[in-house]
Automatic annotation (TrEMBL):
It comes from Bradyrhizobium sediminis. It comes from the Bacteria. Signal peptide: none annotated. Belongs to the UPF0178 family. The lineage of its organism: Bacteria, Pseudomonadati, Pseudomonadota, Alphaproteobacteria, Hyphomicrobiales. This is UPF0178 protein KMZ29_17070. PANTHER family: UPF0178 PROTEIN YAII (PTHR35146).
Amino acid sequence: MTAVLNTTRIYVDADACPVKDEIYRVAIRHGLPVSVVAGSFIRVPQDPLIERIAAGSGMDAADDWIAERAGKGDIVITSDIPLASRCVKTGAEVIAPNGKPFTEQSIGMTLAVRNLMTDLRSSGEITGGPRSFAPRDRSAFLSALDQTIRRIQRQRADQTAQEQS
């Protein structure tokens, strides 16, 4: 286990997250604290690094809780595109459970596609939803999470080296 990365925290939009167990394992291995945020009670492992947050039953209570706290150097795990957009704007690294990163460059198009698909579904043009979660998604997520943690570690190390010189 490595030392906690200054203030890096992983925030999990947990209500429908299929990769919670993977997040716990990676976070514990790297010594990163995790806030598991849900609208209602959710079971989490007994570990001092893992914190369960029942944000309340409001429509966007869990999203609001995460968006108000996540910032630069933090990691947010969500498939909720509006929440991803809010967190990207704060400087947080955002990853979907399928491993897809949300970035400043991609979030605008992702929101536009989401809104278009919502409109098409509500008009009856499209009746299906997204494809089901597959083992390759789990693998892509683990790879993306590990790469993101390592990138933050490098950025922090570079920043520390610059401050010391």
